[in-house]
Amino acid sequence: MRPHALSLSLGLALAALHSVPAFAQDANPASVAEAAVVSATAQTDAALATAPTETLAPADAATTTVDTRQAATAEPALDYALAQVETSQVQPAQPDPNAPAAEAVPPPATAAVEPSAADDQRTEAERDFDALYGTPAQEYDPVADPTLPAPASVPGAFDPWEKYNRKMHRFNMAVDRGVARPLARAYSKVVPRPVRLGVSNFFNNLGQPVSILNALLQGKPKQAAQALGRFALNTTLGIGGIFDPASDAKLPNRSEDFGQTLGVWGWKRSRYVELPFFGPRTVRDSFGALGDAPLSPLRHVERDRIRIPLQGLQLVDVRAQLLPLDSLRDGAEDEYALVRDSWTQRRDYQIFGDRLDKNGDTALPEYLQDDSNPSVPADAMPVMPTDGGR
Fold first, then answer.
1. Inter-residue contact 355 to 238 (CB < 8 Å)
2. pLDDT at position 310 over 80
3. Where are the domains of the chain?
4. Do residues 7 and 70 touch, judged by C-beta distance below 8 A?
5. What is the tens place of the pLDDT at every residue in 228-245?
6. Which of 8, 285, 340, 358 shows a CA-CA span of 20 to 30 A to 374?
7. Smallest Cα–Cα separation from 256: which of 168, 341, 354, 330?
């Protein structure tokens, strides 16, 4: 076989490569191109293997030069075909438009994984916070929280006379806004605080004899002894009760009255009633005021021109202590219900709270043990049925 046979074989290979796109429209481009390259290479190898080895004649030199140029021209085409094969292997296969669309599979949900001790970059405070309130990935439901205590059940007020009480409450509020509150504000504005504190201490000390007797009647000898110590210490060293050295001596101030004594004795539930000028009471506490009146030192003052001004000053002092509560009362949707319920709950704590604390059922908060927000005491009422002909 002469050298021009090599040129013929390469030409056949190129023709096969150029004919591939014509019949490969519906086939895989990668497989068709690979088949063409394999076929051309096989033909070239066969031609070279069958060609005999012979010396080229001088006359064929020109023909050999031409065939060499054709082979050099065919090499880039062969490289281009190989490059197309490699590119078709990298590119993904085109989807068939006639094939049914596959259902989209959602990615699996990733659960919140607690970081390991080595990967945990939180501070000690952040770990404590997450242990109490949960991590941000967790949702907190305050309604279904099993760690919350059961809601407290507070008994409602026993108010069968509500219709009358509401009318009396409106009357008392009119008197309060027109007379009592302006007097209390003027008193707080004009009188210095140390003087007002001395006035409050003086009237509080006058109520200690009532507390001593009722503590004994309730079976509280220790509290009665403390009240006796307060009365003796403040009356002597406190200059008639103006100063309060008993508090510095760690003697607690717990007021008791006969209404509380009746509650301890068994009169636990009583009708709520509003007294004219003197505000919230119960029927039990109204009878209790009648029992406390003979024990009040102030009511034993015979001269009206001394006793009545002192009682008026005590009423103004009590109203001045209640001035911080006016903002709560004025902003209430139902002022009567607020006054009734708050007074009833505080009164129940005063009567039964120390019993619960003694039995270990609950511990009273400090604000419920504070007697700085009193109601009108019996010795401040100008006229009582027990006064007789005076």
1. no
2. yes
3. 1-50, 162-190+257-387
4. yes
5. 999 999 999 999 999 999
6. 358
7. 354
